[in-house]
Amino acid sequence: MQTNSPKQDNPVANRLRPVVYLYAAVNIAVVALLFSTVSPTLATGPAQEIASLR
To answer: Which of 2, 7, 9, 29 has the most CB atoms around it within 10 Å of its CB?
Structure first.
């Protein structure tokens, strides 16, 4: 194993890195949107769930 070997440049990784960052940012935005639409209150029973559907 050589400890002094120069770091090899990987062109595929360099091209994909911005795509991965964009994908992660979109996923975080979708998660934030989904969490913002969820109501923090819990239903007290089946009757309230049915009433909320009407």
So the answer is: 29
